[in-house]
Amino acid sequence: MRIDLHTHSTASDGTDTPAELVRNAAAAGLDVVALTDHDTSRGYAEAVAALPAGLTLVTGAELSCRLDGVGLHMLAYLFDPDEPELLSERELVRDDRVPRAQGMVTKLQDLGVPVTWERVARIAGDGSVGRPHVAEALVELGVVGSVSDAFTPDWLADGGRAYVGKHELDPFDAIRLVKAAGGVAVFAHPAAAKRGQVVPESAIADLAAAGLDGIETDHMDHEPATRARLRGLAADLGLLATGSSDYHGSRKTCVLGEFTTDPEVYGEITRRATGAFPVPGAGGTTA
Predict the structure, then answer these.
(1) Interatomic CA distance for residues 34 and 38, integer angstroms
(2) Alpha helices, DSSP H, located in 129-282
């Protein structure tokens, strides 16, 4: 089985619609794909309706968190999307995204960049607007060469010249909320230092003690030695070790199935979840 547990659609900051994403996942030879848009479950219905036969969909979300001033992301799998407390927190994060992005546009304008809110909103479309959409606007304007080039201290990285914060969950609260909603919590790309400051491994141990289920060890932003170290850390802490592409369509260079999760680990995730269940494909729509 080929299992990719971290992808994004146009419901947040990917470029594939949810329907396109599941069809592309099947075409890439995946058996299981997780839809983990940022702080939202809005893509679920479309993905399920288009789900090809032979592909299983894991519903999820990537939750925005911050610990001691350091941003981090928590992958939540198979939780009840209607559970009130977690839903309320996700809505707070989502509702803060527009003023945050507008604030980044203002900062960029103050730096002499001729970016407009209208341009960013057009790029975001119906998705939850975020830094990647602002970054793509900078690419369109020729300010940077790629989306990843915008995530530097000069521009949009945490603490960068045009950075603006947003409402984010405490990761310990995130774990508690995900568990209360019947879900499974996995720390996304915990050592992705290319993106900015990362939390120390001692914090991962604290999160494990608080009920964290796993860490995403195999990811494009982890070098081979880092992946090996994280797998050892996961074993020491009794955590599941997952692998995923973090696919965003054409917005990033990663491809579906670039990194995958061991079937036994996937099986354990499904065993632990009580809020929702994987959805097997029934043929889907072709439109």
Answers:
(1) 12
(2) 131-140, 147-150, 171-180, 201-209, 224-237, 263-272
Cα 212 from Cα 175, distance rounded (Å): 6
Burial class (CB in 10 A: 0-12, 13-18, 19+), 149: middle
DSSP-derived pairing of the beta strands 70-77 and 184-187? antiparallel
Question: Longest Cα pair distance anywhere in the chain, in angstroms?
Answer: 53
Residues 6+ apart with CB under 8 A from 106: none
Token pair belonging to 160: 């960068």
Is pTM beyond 0.70? Reply is yes
Q: Any long-range contacts for 80-87 (C-beta under 8 Å, 24+ apart)?
A: 80/181, 80/182, 80/183, 80/275, 80/276, 81/41, 81/44, 81/276, 83/177, 83/180, 83/181, 83/182, 83/275, 85/177, 85/180, 85/181, 86/177, 86/178, 86/180, 86/181
Written as tens digits, the pLDDT of the chain (287 aa) is 999 999 999 999 999 999 999 999 999 999 999 999 999 999 999 999 999 999 999 999 999 999 999 999 999 999 999 999 999 999 998 889 899 999 999 999 999 999 999 999 999 988 889 999 999 999 999 999 999 899 999 999 988 999 998 889 999 999 999 999 999 999 999 999 877 789 999 999 999 999 999 999 999 999 999 999 999 999 999 999 999 999 999 888 899 999 999 999 999 999 999 999 999 997 766 55
DSSP lists the bridge partners of residue 187 as 74, 215
